[in-house]
Amino acid sequence: MRSYLDFEKHVAELEAKVDELQALGTSGEGVDVEDEVGRLRSKADEALNELYAKLTPWQKTQVARHPQRPHFCDYTTALFEDFTELAGDRKYGDDAAIVGGFARFRGQSVMLIGHERGSDTESRLKHNFGMARPEGYRKAVRLMEMADRFDIPMVSLVDTAGAYPGIDAEERGQAEAIARSTDACLSLGVPNVAVIIGEGGSGGAIAIATANNVQMLEHSIYSVISPEGAASILWRDSARASDAATNLKITAQDLLRLGIIDGIIPEPVGGAHRDHDAVMRAVGTTIGDALDGLAGMSRDQIKKSRREKFLAIGRHIPA
Q1: What is the structure's pLDDT at 136?
Q2: DSSP code of 11?
Q3: Cα–chain-centroid distance for residue 315?
Q4: Is 23 in a helix, a strand, or coil?
Q5: What is the pLDDT of residue 319?
Q6: What pLDDT does 143 receive?
Q7: Quick check: is 117 in a domain?
Q8: CA distance readout (Å), 282 to 106, 131, 136, 210, 244
Q9: Looking at the domain assignment, is residue 1 inside a domain?
Q10: Which residues of the chain have pLDDT under 50?
């Protein structure tokens, strides 16, 4: 069953009427509803197109967090073959919020790492809603070093509200683990490609997204802090999250203009959750193009290109 966001109320009403008429038409009572269904469906599609053509940053935040949006495991199944998960950081334990391992992408061996949020109550608790503890980032570092040793490109799928802020995580060195993971990304001599598939929150996202090529889905977000967190700090009022979202410049469109990301992957009208297959095709094509663009570069060239990319951020800010 499709879940609607608050600002999609009008579309929800129209699509509910379509469903009611279709049920009536198949009830065997001989009622011809085809014309009315077509008219309402066109009206609903038009309303959806108009709505998604002018989403605010706060509305995009809601779309990025949609519970039916494709998650890491969905992309793994659709785009990669022979995925072999590797667990543990060899220091403390395993963290299910970050999943990674060897896989094949269109015949090419890759190291795949990403945040998994879970899709139901049980899996969300298991994966801690995609918020990793230090052992998750230390596992990521271990896998990056393995990819570098075997000269295998890396693909990261980012979807987290941020690193887990609990006391136990801080006691085990959360900030240090994030910093080392970010440094490991920057030190790779193999190509790395990152895709923000939902939320890219704070250091929890940067830790595996510091890549040669960073892409964002059209309605995903990438920010230093959540809109609610920023509103609480700036105005002591989390209800002003909408204002914070606008001022933080967290949308793919803003970040491309600022030179922080390298491209935007289009989503179906209504968001990625409405058509998983279309999103998978678009993401697969983008990852393939990005890896092809980095192929043939030497290890030094890859490191230099990545370094220059991040050093250039903020030097020239468009008006």
Answers
A1: 96
A2: H
A3: 26
A4: helix
A5: 62
A6: 97
A7: yes
A8: 14, 26, 28, 21, 30
A9: no
A10: none
DSSP states of 81-147: EEEEE----SSS---TTEEEEEEEETTEEEEEEEE---SSHHHHHHTGGG---HHHHHHHHHHHHHH
User: In this structure, what token pair is assigned to residue 115?
Assistant: 């945040």
Q: Residues 107-141, buried b or exposed e (16+ Cβ, 10 A)?
A: eeebbbbbbbbbbeeeeeeebbbbbbbbbbbbbbb
Please give the model's pTM, rounded to 2 decimal places. 0.91
Task: Say which residues have a Cβ less than 8 Å from residue 244's Cβ, sequence separation at least 6.
Answer: 227, 228, 230, 231, 234
| Residue 318, in any domain of the structure | no
The closest of 227, 151, 160 to 196, measured between CA atoms, is: 160
**Same structural domain for residues 114 and 25?**
no
* Number of domains comprising the chain: 2
Domain that holds residue 28: 6-54
Write out pLDDT tens, residues 281-295: 999 999 999 999 999
Same domain (yes/no): 13, 77: no
How far is it, in rounded angstroms, from Cα 310 to Cα 217? 20
* The predicted structure's pLDDT at residue 45: 87
pLDDT for the residue 31? 54
